[in-house]
C-alpha cells in the first residue's frame, strides 16, 4: 500500500488527499452526532485538521480558491480550538 501511495502522480495524490480529508470530516461529524466524540476533545478537532489539510491540498491542485479559503479557515479554527483545549486549566 505504501509503495502505491509513494508513486502516485500529482493528480492522483491530490485526489487521495481529498478523499482522506473528506472522510476525516465525515467521521468527525458522525462521531460528534452519535455522541462518540465531544467538541471539547482534541480528537474531534484533529480529525477536522486532517480533513482541512487533505482538502486544501486537493483545492491547490485544482486551483479551487473558494474551497481553499473555506478549508484554510476550517483548519485554523480547528488548530485554535486544540490550543485552547490544551491550555485550559483543569477545573
Keywords:
single chain; 91 residues; mainly alpha
What is the fold's blueprint, element by element?
Blueprint (H helix, E strand, L loop, with lengths): L1 H5 L3 H24 L8 H21 L2 H23 L4
Helix pairs in contact: 2-3, 3-4
The helix/strand class is mainly alpha
Largest sheet: none
* Count of extended strands: 0
N-C termini distance = 45 Å
Overall geometric form: elongated
Helix content estimate: over 70%
Low-confidence stretches: none
Taken in chain order, the helices and strands follow as HHHH
Report the portion of residues in β strands.
under 5%
What is the arithmetic mean of pLDDT?
90
What Rg, in angstroms, do the CA atoms define?
Answer: 15 Å
Tally the helices: what do you get? 4
Describe this structure in words.
This protein is an all-alpha fold and 91 residues long. It is built from four helices and no strands. The chain has helices at 2-6, 10-33, 42-62, 65-87. Helix 2 runs antiparallel to helix 3 and helix 3 (42-62) runs antiparallel to helix 4 (65-87). The radius of gyration is 15 Å and the shape is elongated. The termini are far apart. 24% of the residues are buried.
Amino acid at each position: 500500500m505504501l509503495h502505491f501511495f509513494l508513486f502516485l502522480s500529482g493528480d492522483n495524490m491530490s485526489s487521495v488527499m481529498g478523499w482522506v480529508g473528506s472522510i476525516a470530516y465525515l467521521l468527525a461529524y458522525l462521531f460528534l452526532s452519535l455522541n462518540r466524540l465531544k467538541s471539547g476533545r482534541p480528537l474531534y478537532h484533529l480529525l477536522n485538521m486532517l480533513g482541512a489539510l487533505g482538502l486544501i491540498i486537493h483545492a491547490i491542485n485544482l486551483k479551487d480558491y473558494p474551497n481553499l479559503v473555506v478549508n484554510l479557515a476550517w483548519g485554523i479554527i480547528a488548530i485554535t480550538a486544540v490550543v485552547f483545549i490544551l491550555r485550559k486549566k483543569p477545573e
